[in-house]
Structure formats: structure tokens, C-alpha cells
């Protein structure tokens, strides 16, 4: 079969679950020894090896990335709603209810809503202008 420029020889790509050579090599290196390696890392952590302590804790109790936030976002219908919502986020952050990262994430959601409001308002204005013509 000759290769044609711009056409993949495997258009569907690698099948899900298929291992790369690197993954297969790493698995073969640790085959049957994972428990022993884990025991040794735990033993070194108990002896005070800070790298092993970090490794064990990262696997046993990883840092949580995000959490469900109990913060009721009011409906965003106009610019005043957006301002009120931002103020609520700021207040919750200042009171310690929300972390800075959570407040930023919520603010970006509200910002997306404000862009949608802006688009809707611009469409309304264009329709009114076209109706006048």
C-alpha cells in the first residue's frame, strides 16, 4: 500500500486500552514487584525520607482538586444581576466561605453569563435598529 499525503494509515487511531511501548516496558519492569516496591517506599518514609513521605502521601491522600461548592448563583438576566452576583462571590470569599480559587472559578462562570447577556442585548438593539430602517 502506498502512502498518500494527507491521508492517515490508521484513521481511527490507536484502540482504547492499547498500551504504548513505554507503558508496556514500565509494567514489565514492575511485574510482580509492585507490593515490594510499595513496602520499601513506606519503610523509607517511616525512616524519615522526605521524598518517600511525599510519594506515599501523594498516593494515599492526594491533594484534592476542587470540591463541591454550596453557593447559589442567582439568575442572570441583566447587568445588575451580574454585579449583584459578583458582589455575592466577593462577600463569600471575604467571609471565608469560598477560597480564592473557588471564587475565581465562580467569577469565570458569571463572566460567561454576562457575555451571553451582552450578546442578547446587542441582538435586541440590532433588531430595533433594523425595525426603524
Number of helices: 5
Which stretches of 5+ consecutive residues score pLDDT under 50? none
Q: What amount of the residues lies in strands?
A: under 5%
What is the general shape? flat
Overall strand count:
0
Structural class: mainly alpha
Mean of pLDDT = 85
Radius of gyration: 27 Å
N-to-C SSE string, H for helix and E for strand: HHHHH
The rounded distance between the terminal residues' Cα atoms is 63 Å
Structural features:
single chain; 133 residues; mainly alpha; flat
Would you mind describing this structure in some detail?
By secondary structure, the chain is mainly α. Among the domains are: 22-60, no CATH class; 79-132. Helix content is 62%, strand content 0%. The protein has helices at 21-30, 34-46, 50-60, 79-94, 100-132. Helix 2 (34-46) packs across helix 3 and helix 4 runs antiparallel to helix 5. It starts with 20 loop residues before the first helix and ends with a helix.
Question: Could you give a short description of this structure?
Answer:
This protein has 133 residues and is mostly helical. The protein has 5 helices and no strands.
